[in-house]
Amino acid sequence: MHAYRSHTCGELRAEHVGTTVRLSGWIFRKRDHGGVLFFDLRDHYGITQAVFNPDRSFFDECQRLKSETVITVTGQVVSRDDETVNPGLPTGAIEVHVDELAVQGPADTLPLYLAGDDEGPEELRLRYRFLDLRRERMQRNLTLRSQIIASIRHRMTGHGFNEMQTPILTSSSPEGARDYLVPSRVHPGKFYALPQAPQQFKQLLMIAGFDKYFQIAPCFRDEDARADRSPGEFYQLDLEMSFVEQDDIFGVVEDVLSGVFAEFSDKKADTGPYERIAFADAMVRYGSDKPDLRNPIVNLDLTEVYRESGLKAFRGIIDGGGVVRGIPVKGIAGQPRSFFDKLVEFSQSIGSKGLAYLVWENGEIKGPIVKFLKPEELEQTQSLCAVGEGDVVFLVCADEKDANRIAGEVRTRLGTQLDILEKDVFRLCWIVDYPMFERNAETGAIDFSHNPFSMPQGEMQALENGDPLDVLAYQYDIVCNGIELSSGAIRNHRPDIMYRAFEIAGYTKEDVDERFGGLINAFKLGAPPHGGLAPGIDRIVMLIADESNIREVIAFPMNQMAQDLMMNAPSEVSEKQLQELHIKLDLPPEDQE
Q1: How far is CA 570 from CA 221, 541, 579, in A?
Q2: Pairing state of beta strands 428-432 and 475-480?
Q3: Which is nearest to 489 in space by CA: 517, 454, 463, 439?
Q4: pLDDT, tens digit, for every residue of 532-585?
Q5: Which residues are paired to 32 by β-bridges?
Q6: Which region, left, alpha or beta, applies to residue 386 given φ > 0 means left and ψ of -120 to 50 means alpha?
């Protein structure tokens, strides 16, 4: 018999009764029933009940063993009595009566209690992450992650993609988030950077002629944590294709993602083609380019309805270039006044001067602003919003950017508060037609709005002959249940168009050559049209695992302060290491203690 196990702790069934087996695992729970000890022995595969009778020579030792001690037991598989069968366990029909015991790894008193529902403080969980990962939920999440990545690899190779690896030590990027820098010992004063994404390398692979590339790529960005974003590092399904249009990329990604969602979740997932929503429409209808389509509320532009309004507050804002957004909600006219008051307070807390509303109830229209509105304004509002008896329309009036944002947050608040989000579904969409440029609110200069390396729609003609603020780009995001999974684009592979686009944004030809010389020089030596995107692996797993925090699907995540509490990183280094790197520290006063 094997030294440690003949079976796993999730393997034994009624057909094994009468056989002698050997199991190894962790003591999960201990129970003393009238002098007989019962251990729930746990490994990665499941739990088996082990029974220790008091006539065994090792019985006293068993009583002293603490939870999470690693043991090996040898004994006979026995059927449980009918009244002690545990239908909640796959192994619940049997137990192992132990004849031999070997203690492999004694455990001290645990800093975390693993057998209950209380998981403990997050700081403690991260400090003892190796313990936290023993929980069934965490084992399930990390196994799911492994299976999802394996499935994605299989699906991508099935589409003819080559998996290739790109450098981890590379040059610093002047765009995007902050880089993590790595000092060079052999080149004093110079630094590598960890890649924020393999963006330039995957484009170079297309220029090299590989046609279809992907990798499960580690990416590093020095940015703050969020519930759906882990600080420091993350993984993405990075892909790029040559000689493709936007639709070609959408088709591959829709097939891969829909297949993965269907394979690993019982929830219904949209299948391709996913809904496509222009960025400008998304900002009006949802107040965000990350819309949660499970929410049935769709906002509307009512600016023209109120342009000559009898409500002076609205008319004045519209005359100054502002807009009106309507938020129609079905069947809530009967809500108490406090419901509306609290929603007004919420809107004010996010920057609104107020939140007007109209209520269709008992055959009339009610609300604080009704007396200021003309009959035709009420009629047009009702018609455009498709509302009637029992419905409510909330109104936000502000400059366009604020009105979209506030109306979007009110929409989200209503969807959650009223519990009207569609249940047990994954709703996916593409946000397309992003503007290529935007005006900087502080300087008035024209900046890139999303991705400077995207191909403008209309190419050079659009850049030469139109208003730059009207130019759209072949840029797109894929969104699932309000979470952005990825940004992508058809790339600008033409040096002349790239120089012109950067010129509009205030860069000289010399600036472009200095900052992006490697890429643009490659474009001058025969570059195919190409494009791609990179859905986030962590976010995909988080959605399928039905977790609200991305750290629950990452084996060893950092905390919100980008610290690894378990490994004590970042940490100080020795003076010798600094000298080898020709680095002297110049810390702010508060850090010099």
Answers
A1: 15, 27, 19
A2: antiparallel
A3: 454
A4: 999 999 999 999 999 999 999 999 999 999 999 999 999 999 999 999 999 999
A5: 37
A6: left
- Counting other chains too, the contacts that 500-505 makes at CB distance below 8 Å and 24 or more residues apart are 500/460, 500/463, 500/464, 501/436, 501/448, 501/452, 501/456, 501/463, 502/452, 504/437, 504/446, 504/463, 504/468, 505/437, 505/446, 505/447, 505/448, 505/452
* Rg, C-alpha atoms of the chain: 30
Residue 133, token pair as written in the block: 């990962």
Beta pairing, strands 428-432 & 275-278: parallel
Give yes or no for a contact between 538 and 550, defined as CB atoms under 8 angstroms apart.
yes
Q: Round to whole Å and give the CA distance between 418 and 72.
A: 53
Count of residues making up the chain:
593
**Which pair of tokens denotes residue 176?**
């995007």
> Tens of pLDDT along 88-135?
999 999 999 999 999 999 999 999 999 887 888 999 999 999 999 999
Beta-carbon count within 10 A of 283 CB? 23
Burial code (b: 16+ CB inside 10 Å, e: under 16) for 1-19 equals: eeeebbbbbbbbeeebeee
For residues 271 and 214, give the distance between their C-alpha atoms in angstroms, rounded to a whole number.
22
β partners of residue 323: 398
Q: Is 245 left (phi over 0), alpha (psi -120 to 50) or beta?
A: beta
Euclidean distance between CA atoms 537 and 534, whole angstroms: 9
Among candidates 358, 363, 354, which has minimal Cα distance to 305? 358
* Cα–Cα distance list, 460 to 294, 446, 495, 582 (Å): 39, 17, 11, 47
Q: Contact 95/49 with Cβ under 8 angstroms?
A: yes
User: Scanning the structure block, which residue is given the tokens 């031999």?
Assistant: 100
* Cβ neighbours of 365 (radius 10 Å): 17
Widest Cα–Cα separation across the chain: 94
Contact 28, 42 (CB under 8 A): yes
301 residue type, one letter: D
The secondary structure of 525-564 as a DSSP string is TT---EEEE--BHHHHHHHHTT-SSGGGGSSS---TTS-B
How far apart CA 261 and CA 268 sit, in angstroms, is 8
| Distance from C-alpha of 156 to C-alpha of 253, rounded to nearest angstrom | 9
Q: What is this structure's pTM?
A: 0.93
d(CA 192, CA 171): 5
Backbone angles phi, psi at 232, to 5 degrees: 90, -70
Question: Please, which pLDDT band fits residue 593 given cuts at 50, 70 and 90?
Answer: very low
**Tokens read off for 416:** 């959650």
Per-residue pLDDT of 206-229, as tens digits, reads 999 999 999 999 999 998 877 778
| Chain centre to alpha carbon of residue 162 | 25
DSSP E strands: which ranges in 210-274? 212-221, 232-242, 268-269
* CA 221 – CA 82 distance, rounded (Å): 57
Q: CA end-to-end span of the chain, whole Å?
A: 59
Geometric angle at alpha carbon 69, from 64 and 75, rounded to 5°:
85
